[in-house]
């Protein structure tokens, strides 16, 4: 979490305020990487994007009571991110440091969202294809790509060669690739 956001949200004292803060943090932590990536697309300069991100985080906290819990937090937060990027470019323009016009910013935003939607569709296809694998292959994929993935450690546990596990994961990846390609054409 960002230091400035941490300081801004620490003021929650009562149980209700604490639950409110926890609700915000749960939503925020789910989308933080996407928001940071989205801003990097719109702001271009990574140091400036991080500064804009810090401001965005505080603004999201300040306006969280306006968030409609029935809708996507990410979509709501992206509106704030877009406006933060627009403000950033307007400030640069006033200081004659160069700027992106509103249409260019909109085009960058659309391109990012299109790419995001494509990647989400691809992830969904991969999840479906993994579900179609044999159960033992599903477990192996979970082990191979899990948080503490180590094929070397797993090979020792299973008393198999590391090379045989790499060949197995390669065969599974090939199956998944064919499955995703097939689903893409459906």
Automatic annotation (TrEMBL):
InterPro entries: RNA_pol_sigma-70-like (IPR039425), RNA_pol_sigma-70_dom (IPR014284), RNA_pol_sigma70_ECF_RHOBA (IPR014331), RNA_pol_sigma70_r2 (IPR007627), RNA_pol_sigma_r2 (IPR013325), RNA_pol_sigma_r3/r4-like (IPR013324), WH-like_DNA-bd_sf (IPR036388). It comes from the Bacteria. GO terms for molecular function: sigma factor activity. GO terms for biological process: DNA-templated transcription initiation. Residues 28-95 form the RNA polymerase sigma-70 region domain. Keywords: Sigma factor, Transcription, Transcription regulation. NCBIfam families: Sig-70_gvs1, sigma70-ECF. Belongs to the sigma-70 factor family. ECF subfamily. This is RNA polymerase sigma factor.
């Amino acid at each position: 979490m960002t230091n400035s956001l941490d300081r801004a949200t620490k003021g929650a004292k009562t149980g209700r305020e604490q639950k409110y803060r926890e609700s915000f943090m749960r939503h925020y932590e789910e989308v933080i990487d996407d928001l940071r990536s989205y801003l990097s697309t719109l702001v271009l300069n990574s140091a400036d994007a991080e500064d804009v991100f810090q401001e965005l985080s505080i603004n999201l906290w300040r306006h969280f009571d306006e968030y409609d819990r029935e809708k996507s937090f990410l979509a709501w937060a992206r509106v704030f991110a877009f406006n933060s990027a627009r403000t950033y470019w307007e400030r640069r323009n006033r200081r004659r440091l160069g700027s992106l016009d509103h249409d260019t910013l909109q085009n960058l935003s659309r391109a990012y969202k299109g790419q995001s939607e494509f990647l989400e569709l691809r992830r969904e296809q991969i999840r479906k294809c993994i579900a179609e694998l044999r159960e033992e292959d599903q477990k192996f994929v979970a082990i191979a790509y899990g948080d503490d993935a180590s094929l070397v450690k797993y090979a020792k546990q299973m008393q198999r060669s590391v090379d045989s596990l790499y060949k197995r994961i390669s065969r599974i990846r090939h199956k998944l690739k064919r499955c995703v390609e097939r689903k893409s054409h459906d």
